[in-house]
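Design request, tokens follow.
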């Protein structure tokens, strides 16, 4: 878990179109990352 104010580690994730994007692709830009951890569950 990250502490408040710490930088996020480098990562790569698929975007809404399935294209892989890296955190570094957004260097110098404002980025908001939102996750839905229960989106792929039955609950």
């Amino acid at each position: 878990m990250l502490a408040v104010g710490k930088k996020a580690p480098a990562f790569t994730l698929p975007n809404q179109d399935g294209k892989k994007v890296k955190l570094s692709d957004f260097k110098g830009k404002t980025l908001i990352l939102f996750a839905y951890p229960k989106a792929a569950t039955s609950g």
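Comment from the thread starter after seeing the answer: thanks! The chain has one domain: 1-43.
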